[in-house]
Amino acid sequence: MTGRGLSPMILWAIMQSPKYERNTHPSRIEDPMMKRSVQVLLVLSIAVALSSCESLMERTVEKRLNRQRADLLQDGNLHVILVGSGGPINNTERLPVCTAVIAGGEFILVDAGPGTVRNADLLNLPLAGLTGVFVTHFHSDHIADLGEANFQSWAAGRRKKLEIHGPKGVEQIVQGFIAAYAPDAQYRIAHHGESVMPPEASRPEAKTLSLQSSDTAELCFDRNGLKVYAFAVDHFPAEPALGYRVEYKGNNVVITGDTKKVKSLVQHAQNADLLISEALSFKMTALVQKVFSENGRTRLAKIMSDIPDYHMSPVQAAEVAREANVKKLVLHHIAPPVTNFFAKRMFLEGTREVFAGEIVLGDDGMSFDFDPKM
Q1: In whole angstroms, what is the distance from residue 153 CA to residue 265 CA?
Q2: Which candidate, 73, 85, 27, 100, places its Cα nearest to that of 224?
Q3: Edge-to-edge strand order for the sheet containing 106-110?
Q4: DSSP code string of 181-239
């Protein structure tokens, strides 16, 4: 007798009794034998239900254990996943930016905005295999989850130091996260033991990327066929700021970071298979600023008026894609938030007239997969 079958049988047994009424409750039944029978059946029903809950929980845990996409590390392809595709303004559609790159047994993140490590786990990405994080610059919506990237991958089974690559200043950022998480690291090591939580893996390692020239791309990572190049972009006063070009088995992916339109983007995105570009709608930002001003929110209006001078519009991103002859353009760091069909149309306005290739408005969880070309 299963949990599913028991309740109808109980109901049938009670309904056969001459004492039965539709509002019958055990406390209202006068016949002692009938009352006792109902109580026993209710107890049995609860016991079976609890047993079913335990089985369901066991199956859920087992499914969770087996859901991690470790196959992505070794299938020979290049995988690029938008873990977070939004800007810094909170909304229900997109988390701030974080892009996963998986290939050749390596798993890296480019930026780690708030909440994105949780998204990476929910997307079943193999956190235990996380190799490193590449930071474009130090605005909070790009680095807030560095501590979680380190700790969650450590808890998942990573046994080596997590490398955090970034422009000058990354050492200060990493040391800050180490200090903030130091008590928690001690708790976990003391509680679970060093064999489970190796202390050396609890402290990330900063890797400062220093470019010899603003015109060149520097190779900063080269393992198992996966190469990452860093190049300079312009996000003043947030400087230095970097973009990254990823290469694997003949495929090229460029991630702009936050920047205004500059020549280096066109130079380093040449013939890329995929250009993942930040995009801020100047038109929509101006409308938000107008509403703030009309409602006396002068501080917020000032912030909105400042933002466009160090970002690219969707049309400018499309211009870079056209000039660099890229195959596909994906827009991320989407701001202001785009939460409906009409906002999407306004956000993409003018881009199709500029770039004839495919244009994708990024969403959290989108994946782009590339077979080897060589």
Answers
A1: 32
A2: 73
A3: 205-208, 163-166, 130-134, 106-110, 98-103, 78-84, 367-370
A4: HHHHHHHHHHHH-TTTS-GGGSS-EEEE---S-TTS-EEEEEETTEEEEEEEE--TTS-
pLDDT along the chain (374 residues), means of 10: 45 47 52 69 70 71 70 92 95 96 97 97 95 97 97 95 97 97 96 95 95 87 96 93 97 96 94 97 94 94 93 97 97 95 94 96 97 90
Dihedral over Cα of 188, 194, 195, 198: its sign: positive
Given a contact cutoff of 8 angstroms between Cβ atoms, the answer to whether 321 and 357 are in contact is yes
pLDDT of residue 128: 94
CA pair distance 51, 289, nearest whole angstrom: 57
At 38 the pLDDT is 67
Is residue 144 a contact partner of residue 117, using CB atoms and an 8 Å limit?
A: no
Amino acid code (one letter) for 246: V
**Looking up tokens 């006068």, which residue turns up?**
30
